[in-house]
Amino acid sequence: MAKSTDVYDRFARAVAADRNFEAAATSYIEAFVNWRRSLSGFNKVISSGARLRIMKSILCLHFGNATDNPDDGATFERLLTLSNPGDGAETCGPRVLRTVIALAQRSGHLGVVQGWYDRRLKILKPTEKWIALEADRHEVALSSLGLLAQDRSRFAMRPSGAALVGRLAVASGRAERAVGVTLGEPDGPMRALAALDGGLATALSVADAWIRGKRIPSHKEIGASFRLSASQARKILRLAAEHGLLTFDRDGKIADASTLAAASRRLVAHEFALYARCIAPFEATAAETVLAPAFVAERRVEHAH
Fold it and tell me: 270: helix, coil or strand?
């Protein structure tokens, strides 16, 4: 039997073969870069692959609470376990976890409440501010995904806002446990870049400019866009060059980023494949049973307002 990852790879190749894929990928990369530029200080919270995984784990634990116990949410200990991938490629230790939680709290994207039964517990909960940002990110991807020629009708009826964020958090969490992949996590050389603070945003901003024939932003401009230092942006691009994703001319300017652009499109193909896989059950009545009871209750509270 083929591995689950092989299924996703075949799906991603099918997406990349779509006659409208180039336009869809270009749209997604441009929109994603603009979204990251709009985040201001939140860029610090999700700057690296490890930090992004922590934040996604909080959403997964929050929306995936399928019990009647209000204490079964995102606690520090549960996050520490969930935020570390099985392959050990990127370790999210207690120090990193505390830093991300503190940054998210100070920026107003994360709240903390005491446990209902065990008052010693501190349950982390995403704020409306953060959920709105996540919803915007998903809308960016799904709007571009809708440009593909195949199966456009599959995305005509789908949740939006907090409902979309919750469903994707739970569905992508299940997919990760099943096949070891999750939304927003590249592989190969792009994964090495994503491990650095600002790595993925920097790489995609360069790819975006190259694909659309625009001037490639300077180190200083990249740093200003994503809350990085110019030296950090330079470090990311040097690592990209070491992996053969781009080349520099004699003046130290980027001469060729076509390989980086191709790697970025491959990442988009896998993103589209995972989004499609997570959203596919939305149109199937039987699949509605996977909705967590805790999320049903929360959604009813929202409607009551």
Answer: helix
* Domain residue limits at 150: 4-39+128-186+264-299
Residue 73 domain-assigned? Answer: no
Q: Is 284 a domain residue?
A: yes
In a domain? residue 203? no
Residues across the chain: 305
Interatomic CA distance for residues 117 and 94, integer angstroms = 25
Task: Let me know if residue 239 belongs to a domain.
Answer: no
**At residue 51, what are phi and psi to the nearest 5 degrees?**
-70, -40
Burial of 291 (0-12, 13-18, 19+ CB in 10 A): middle
How many Å is the maximal CA-CA distance in the chain? 65
C-alpha–C-alpha distance, residues 54 and 218, integer Å: 30
Can you give the pLDDT of all 305 residues of the chain as single tens digits?
344 566 677 888 888 999 999 999 999 999 999 999 999 889 999 988 888 888 988 998 888 876 667 778 888 888 888 777 555 555 678 888 999 999 999 999 999 988 787 778 888 999 999 999 999 999 888 889 888 877 565 666 777 888 889 888 887 766 554 434 444 567 778 889 988 999 999 999 999 999 999 999 999 999 999 999 999 999 999 999 999 999 999 988 999 999 999 999 999 998 888 888 777 543 333 333 333 333 333 333 333 33
* Number of folded domains that form the chain: 1
At 228 the three-state DSSP class reads coil
Question: What's the predicted TM-score (pTM) here?
Answer: 0.80
